[in-house]
Amino acid sequence: MAAGEWIHVIDVRTFEETDRAELRALFGRAGEGSPTASLWGHEPSEAAVYLDPYMDLAPDSLFLAVLDGALVGYLTGCLDSSALPGESERMVRAIRKHRLILRRGPAAFFARSTVDAAMAAVRRRPIPGDFTDPRWPAHLHINLEPRARGTGAADSLMEEWFARLRATGSPGCHLQTLCENTRAVRFFQRMGFVPHGPTPLVPGIRVGRKRLHQQTMVWNP
Fold first, then answer.
1. Angle of the 20-29 helix axis to the 43-50 helix axis, nearest 10
2. Mind listing the pLDDT tens digit for each residue in 21-73?
3. What span, in angstroms and rounded, lies between the C-alpha atoms of 86 and 214?
4. CA 70/CA 129 separation, integer angstroms
5. Under the phi-then-psi rule, with left for phi > 0, alpha for psi from -120 to 50, and beta for the rest, what region is 23?
6. Class of the 10-219 domain?
7. Residue 150 pLDDT greater than 60, yes or no
8. What's the rounded Cα separation, in Å, for the pair 200 and 126?
């Protein structure tokens, strides 16, 4: 080890109810700098879609990465995706609960999403939907705050998840990321995932003025 170089020791463990508040705070920091750091600019409703259901319904498949006593990353997983409400259903619930159509930023996002979906339908192009395939019933999301990148935290979270899949006899797992997030795609490929299916336009999302596309990836033990 070179002088002044730090050795990062990552501890990975499963979620506990006492982690809830700290994990919600991490949700706001994690993913910073990525295209999906914030989708429609309202953190409580985004957490209601992408974090809270996993704490409530699949806590045994929620893994936390800890560095120097602080949470720096997490992996939300589900062994059987049919056991959770689909992403589209969770989003509809969040829109209603938080009255997002009355909030300027979220309302603009969902209006843009509606236009994008309508244009895709006119052009007969696919748009993302809930993924259902018995070959890959499990799914995951993984997120790190910037300081955890390059520490091995992502690898450690994935290895814990793979161990759970193997221990429960899961036939396979899927995830969905963005084609344009090449760093994430490369990471998942290194973890053994392979691209699967089409890469449809994701309605509503923009980075600058650039539209983004979804990449489904699958893994088998």
1. 110
2. 999 999 988 867 666 656 788 899 999 999 999 999 999 999 999 998 899 99
3. 17
4. 35
5. alpha
6. alpha beta
7. yes
8. 5
